[in-house]
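Render this sequence as a predicted structure.
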Amino acid sequence: MSRRSNLAALALGMAAAVAPHSVFAHGAVMTAEPTQAIRLQARYDTGEPMAQAQVIIYAPNTPSEIWGRGVTDRDGRFDFIPEDIAGRWSVQVRQAGHGVMAHVDISDAAPVLVATPQQDTWAQRMVMIALVAWGGLGTALFALRKKGRSDASA
């Protein structure tokens, strides 16, 4: 390889490393669709599926005890057949520090999705980025302050 192509590859690698998509954090989003079973699909708010994520299911009659466990497939999907227990079933999906929980009401008629958290808006993300940057700047300025200053209260 020539020196020019090595420099071009290095520049491209550095650009990819600091690209904006790597700066933004991402949350999690899940949809549930009623069928004979409960079908969940968990994905990050970027659209990427939460593949091989941990699934924990809580039954309405014992909401503090785990009813079942599983793992999503490569598309972030997971199906389960709840017992014949009416009420609010809670399903949690977690992966790599991200998580989402959905509640599915099951009555005699059919399961109905009642709540899923909303994903962050771009304005919320920009505020989070600004706060992290402000904290980093404050920490850097604190670390760089003059070490030789005397304390007036001493």
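Summary. The CA atoms of residues 102 and 116 lie 5 Å apart. The longest helix spans residues 122-144.
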